[in-house]
Specification:
- The protein is of the alpha/beta class.
- About 40% of the residues lie in helices and about 20% in strands.
- The protein is built from 14 helices and 16 strands.
- The strands form 2 sheets. An 8-stranded mixed sheet has the order 4-3-2-5-1-6-7-8, sandwiched between helices. Strands 9, 10, 11, 12, 13, 14, 15 and 16 form an 8-stranded mixed sheet that branches.
- Helix 5 (about 205-215) links the parallel strand 9 and strand 10.
- Helix 1 packs across helix 4, helix 7 (about 250-260) packs antiparallel against helix 8 (about 265-275) and helix 8 packs across helix 9.
- The longest helix is centred in the C-terminal third of the chain and has 23 residues, at about 385-405.
- The chain is elongated, with a radius of gyration of 25 Å.
Length: about 450
């Protein structure tokens, strides 16, 4: 059995490390059937425990006494024995001196560091070059909000301080807190699921059916990257879950007017998003959402990591030539589909272990192009500004489809939506597009279920 020992370190703000260790161990045991051991690292020697759904119980493990005054000798032998019988060994070093913790951090596979400031200095006990998983402690809902930028790959956790001290088991926690802890547990055990949502105008409503089906099958979504309408879907889900997606579908008429108004200024799309979401800022989201836009100065795809959610969505969907650009921090952004229509390549560096891509762009021929039957009508169609706008959308769809398919190569599973009778400007037909996609997504969900099942089995992520 291949086991990944993990060190959990006290954060700079004094996170309740011992309780977090217990709850994360219970989450791995309850959710995935992993056999988990916890080892308290003390100056006088290690103390092993086995994790159960109710908490720690003493673990009888044959280990010799430390040599002289060196407790690490006994710890090293204990770990060598535990890795044979357990899927994960969590080390709880809150009572150990920094010198001992430093020796441990060079022995383990990864270090988990709870912090408010992911750009701050690591504890002196962490050796340079150690694989560090940062867990950002978000402000509790009743605390004054403070804006922070998080490093790529950071997992986010919001746990009300009042919870700690009750010593409740994982199963006794409210559902929202269990979901938060399970997300961290998946990050620790290499089970993080990332979803890349491509652009495609109204066709992007097909993303809703994919997300619904994933959750119905028990496949978690730990982070999302989105382009254009994929950013709209990602924002509504990351902020308000399935309820947010229901709002997005129900508000399809208002969205259509916002898109049309964005020909003048994409601030209309910004207002549409901002007025309907619970969370306001990207960095306040517990489920990371990464809107991807194109820096028109460099031609490179960039992630908008901080600031209002509506502004990130606006930048990601500023289709050049049709919708106005978006300026953020002195940078002129246009639609992310120009450089990365399916942003799957953004997810590995964010910590995703299973990457699912959703491509909603349709092949040419999905709609009939009107040309006119005589000379007069042909000239009229040539001059028609609405027809020209449609030509632009169809041309962009053709240009970005192939690039998006190349960008999705790093995905483990890709959903290719097959839609009929709808065009990318048919935003008012959102409910019909979702219904079509629900009938179409089944085979892809089967492949995703198999991929997730491999990770979700006991020890599957190790």
């Amino acid at each position: 059995m291949n086991v990944a020992p993990v060190v959990l370190l006290e954060s700079a703000v004094g996170a309740p490390l011992s309780e977090l260790t217990d709850l994360l161990g219970q989450s791995l045991e309850v959710e995935y059937g992993d056999r988990v051991a916890i080892v308290e690292v003390r100056p006088e020697g290690p103390v092993p425990w086995r994790v159960t759904p109710e908490g720690r119980i003493p673990l009888v493990a044959a280990t010799r006494a430390p040599d002289g005054d060196d407790p690490f000798a006994g710890l090293e032998e204990l770990l060598d024995r535990l890795v044979v019988d357990f899927h994960y060994v969590l080390l709880d070093p809150h009572r150990a001196d920094p010198a001992l913790v430093s020796r441990i951090s060079g022995y383990v596979d990864r270090v988990v560091y709870f912090t408010y400031d992911t750009f701050g200095a690591l504890p002196a006990a962490v050796r340079p070059g150690a694989q560090v998983l940062a867990v950002a402690l978000l402000d509790p809902p009743d605390a004054p909000y403070s804006r922070r930028l998080y490093r790529a790959g950071t997992t986010r956790l919001r746990m009300p301080p009042a919870h700690f001290g009750n010593r409740r088991s994982y199963r006794e926690l409210p559902a929202a807190e269990r979901q938060s802890l399970a997300r961290v547990a998946r990050a620790i055990s290499c089970r993080t699921v990332g979803l890349a949502l491509g652009g495609g105008g109204a066709w992007g409503y097909a993303h809703v059916a994919l997300i619904e089906s994933l959750l119905a099958e028990g496949v978690p979504i730990d982070l999302l990257a989105g382009v254009s309408f994929g950013s709209v879907c990602g924002a509504f889900y990351a902020s308000d879950g399935l309820g947010g997606l229901e709002t997005l579908v129900a508000e399809c008429t208002s969205l259509a007017f916002s898109v049309w108004a964005s020909v003048v200024s994409t601030s209309a799309l910004d207002r549409f998003v901002r007025r309907r979401l619970t969370e306001t800022y990207l960095e306040a989201l517990e489920v990371p959402f990464l809107p991807v836009a194109t820096n028109i100065s460099t031609g490179e795809a960039e992630v908008i990591r901080m600031g209002p959610i509506g502004l990130g969505v606006r930048a990601s969907g500023s289709l050049p030539g049709l919708l106005s650009p978006t300026i953020v921090g002195g940078v002129r952004f246009v639609d992310g589909g120009i450089s990365a229509n399916i942003p799957a390549s953004m997810l590995p560096s964010e910590g995703a272990d299973l990457i699912i891509a959703s491509n909603v762009l349709q092949h040419p021929g999905f709609t009939q192009v009107r040309t006119g039957g005589n000379r007069f009508t042909r000239v009229a169609f040539e001059l028609d500004p609405i027809a020209r706008a449609k030509d632009l959308i169809l041309s962009m769809s053709t240009l970005t489809r192939q690039g998006g398919e190349l960008m999705s190569v790093c995905a483990h599973v890709t959903y290719q939506a097959r839609l009929t009778g709808v065009a990318p400007w048919d935003f008012m037909r959102g409910p019909q597009i979702v219904e079509q996609a629900r009938r179409d997504v089944g085979p892809t969900i089967d492949r995703i279920r198999q991929a997730w099942g491999t990770l979700a089995r006991p020890g599957g992520g190790s």
